[in-house]
Amino acid sequence: MNILVNASNLKKGGGVQVADSICCLLEGFTQYHFVVVLSSFMQATRYKMKNVKNVEVVIHDVNNNVSTLLFGRDSFLDGLVKNRRIDGVLTVFGPSRWNPKCVHLSGFARPHLVMPLSPYFRQLSYLARLKEKLQNILLKYMFARSTHFFFTENPYISKLVGQLFRKSSVYTITNYYNQVYDHPENWVKKVLPPFEGITLLTVTAYYTHKNLPISIEIARVLRKKYPNFIFRFVFTVEEAQFPVIEEELQGHFVFVGRVDIVECPSLYEQSDIMFLPTLLECFSATYPEAMKMECPIVTTDLEFAKGLCGNAARYYSPLSAVEAAEAIYQVGTNVSLRKQLIDAGKQQLKTYDTYDERVSKLVRLLEHLIDVNKSN
């Protein structure tokens, strides 16, 4: 059986990490031949797979031309399906913008489409909300056009996707931390500046829905209410992406820029709290990463977060810098609470599919869909 794994549309963030994890485990399925299409932003993954016998790696960025956007055609990808006799396509996360002429299973990680009541939208200007609405109409069309088979990483999201695409089949296969976290010998040290205090780590690309700028107001609240509390925020984004931070607060912020996945474990090792102020999420790998690295979590009290973290996080109202500051202070100053959250995280990890289970379930599911298609 020939399977094409499509990551040609991925550029940054958690999607790239998931694709890396899946692709690097395909060598265990020797009964299949895989054609893996990586975007030009995934050269590191390409290097890892260069000697895998049952995997052919191709670099290609899906086109944004009229043919692709209107009709779902990409001549290069269409050629691969035809010439490699592909039986089915697994798009790690859609929309693929491309409509394969074979069985197509697509990951769904676009919470904007299924959670219109998120506080994220209340923060936007009228023009920004209009832009989001128009973009979501296009995304829904592109998803519906390309496949009738979806998988999500969260049962809550699967339910919502099923309501949005009522004629489609939706499956749940959870995310997990990348396998590099289980191999310390492969970690690369990313050294933070020396610091005596509480370090709050946020590993993410700069997305509006992550609501990272709330940290500026949180810093103001902490300085005013708890002047003796020593803290800093560490973000894996560029400082230029952030709003201007007043001079008296700049010492509370460290921007390390984009990091490779092999550098992330060392950042957790140097941190005391994983802080994720996100307003929209299907799944965030930073939750299981923090649990694995025994880093207590402070995050928003939204349903997706509670479903993923359970008792392993201290929650706060998503738009309240005051509540967030209080949660950070409580976790940062209470050793017993930190241990409680860490212990709960170890238990919560058991509710996820591991990276091995995830790739196995995805391949078996696609195989099943291909077999059903052939029998019809």
From TrEMBL:
Pfam family, one: Glycos_transf_1
Keywords: Transferase
Domain Glycosyl transferase family as annotated: residue spans: 188-347
Gene Ontology molecular function: glycosyltransferase activity
InterPro entries tied to this protein: Glyco_trans_1 (IPR001296)
Coiled-coil spans in chain: none
SUPFAM superfamilies listed in its UniProt record: UDP-Glycosyltransferase/glycogen phosphorylase (SSF53756)
Superkingdom, taxonomy of origin: Bacteria
Designated name of the protein: Glycosyltransferase
UniProt source species: Butyricimonas paravirosa
